[in-house]
What we know:
The protein has a single domain (3-376), classed as Metal-dependent hydrolases (TIM Barrel), CATH 3.20.20.140. Helices cover 31% and strands 19% of the residues. It has 11 helices and 15 strands. The longest helix is centred in the middle third of the chain and has 16 residues, at 180-195. The radius of gyration is 20 Å and the shape is globular. Zinc ion is lined by residues 43, 45, 69, 279, 281.
Amino acid sequence: MIKTLNLPCKGSKFFLGKAEGPRPIKTKGVKMDLSLTRPDDWHLHLRDGDLLGAVVSHSAHHFGRAIIMPNLKPPVMTTAAAVAYRESILKALPENSDFTPLMTLYLTDHMSPNEIKLARRSGVVFAVKLYPAGATTNSQDGVTDLFGKCLPVLEEMVEQNMPLLVHGEVTDPEVDIFDREKLFIDTILRPLVQKLPRLKVVMEHVTTLDAVRFVESCIEGSVAATVTPQHLLLNRNSLFQGGLQPHNYCLPVLKREIHRQAIVSAVTRGSKQFFLGTDSAPHERRWKECPCGCAGIYSSPVALSLYAMVFEQAGALDKLEAFTSFNGPDFYGLPRNTSKIRLSKAQWRVPESYAFESGEIVPMFAGQTLEWRPSTMD
Ligand code: NCD
Ligand code: ZN
């Protein structure tokens, strides 16, 4: 039996008696728990084959739904491929899981506007992902001519109210990697939003103050952003702390501390335009720890604990639930989840790695002790 308490909890504005936010609950032998509407993950890489089987349960345990990224090899470019991929995800789920994958299509210069109609009619495709060609993992088939060849597709997306999810980096190798997001905003994203003001756009995994300012300058409900745990907790020093740290390498790459602070400030002041998207991107250990390591951080098992840590440190636990569970579905026009999860203020140690048939995956914060432990409430 769970008892609802209104006890003050150090460092949290929430406990000053605000009406909104996760409800604190207390259970026998556990210090302090939060009850949250089940969160969704609005940016997730589940991969396929063995790797899918190894990671899907970590997301399914904590999240109700997830936007599934289409950058497989080959990419998910048609509704038929998305339907097939969805089936394989459902098959890989643990028994009795009610996790719902929300599928996406990989935009290319050659996509036809009719594909958007098919996607909308399918009822299982919820967005289209723009990877500028060459920007990140498996993006080689991505877009080279957004304002030319892709325009009819974008116009159809407006008609179908289908969101465009954007990997916001220019790909010119001459441009400093730390400036690629800002340049993308100035040369592509702002012009896109001006050209198609009715297109719904999610700027994925924002990493800079510039991105925060851009998103907040746009109309709520038409432009939003996902935020990863790594861009809230780490800055670019984490890439080089005591030696090269491949497990902190992702794209867009971690930025300076001022950028991290701007993102923390945006989410913890409760802006509705920002919501949870882990960008959990598993790669086998041997493809991370090698001469040319892959970009991507595996965060599914730790993400909720880490988001809670960020909001707690900012004294903003009252804003956590909107970020994890309300702003995303509200933006996508989907119902909020009705079930709850529990976040217990209890220490747990992150495994050093997760083994599966073909290798192992090292999670974010491997081997470290975290303070908030999520579990299902029923
Ligand atoms: C992602 C991946 O591995 O698929 N990698 C990453 O560093 N985030 C791709 C992406 O979202 O950029
Ligand atoms: Zn991603």
